[in-house]
Amino acid sequence: MLLISCPHCGPRAETEFHCGGEAHIERPEQPDNLSDAEWAEFVFLRNNPKGLLLERWHHSQGCRRWFNAARDTVTYEILAIYPMGSQPPALDPRRYV
Q1: Rounded Cα gap, residues 41 and 92, in angstroms
Q2: How confident is the model at residue 72, as a pLDDT?
Q3: Sorting pLDDT into bands at 50, 70 and 90, what band is 93?
Q4: Is pTM beyond 0.90 here?
Q5: How far apart are CA 77 and CA 85, in angstroms?
């Protein structure tokens, strides 16, 4: 089982959390002006790298707050946790491939 350290509650079992997908995705400023293909790309297409990925996580069975995590998709190791709205920590993505 993966142990995730909630920045508000401390270490908890992964079963208390839900992954909210890739972090730092900006919503289009004028979504009504997008074509169907552009909207589909925004809604459905995400990075799925082998290695470092920045994700949003929700502590759904605890404090119910959101936070960001930098995770290695190969080893599932969580490399850093940081608040929503802040910049990710400096990590070398080549190290995690």
Answers
A1: 27
A2: 92
A3: low
A4: no
A5: 22
| Cα 79 from Cα 71, distance rounded (Å) | 6
Which single residue is written with the structure tokens 């509650």? 9
| pLDDT recorded at residue 97 | 54
**Amino acid at site 70:** A
Residue linked to tokens 């995730």: 4
Residue 65 CB neighbour total at 10 angstroms: 15
Q: Which two tokens stand for residue 82?
A: 């940081």
Which amino acid belongs to residue 5? S
Angle, vertex CA 47, rays to CA 44 and CA 52, nearest 5: 150
Residue 22: CB atoms within 10 Å:
15
Tokens of 75: 């080893």
Judged against a pLDDT cut of 70, whether residue 16 lies above it is answered with yes
Using an 8 Å Cβ cutoff, are 56 and 20 in contact?
Answer: yes
Q: Which residues of 30-55 are buried (b: 16+ CB within 10 A; e: fewer)?
A: eeeeeeeeeeeeeeeeeeeeeebbbb
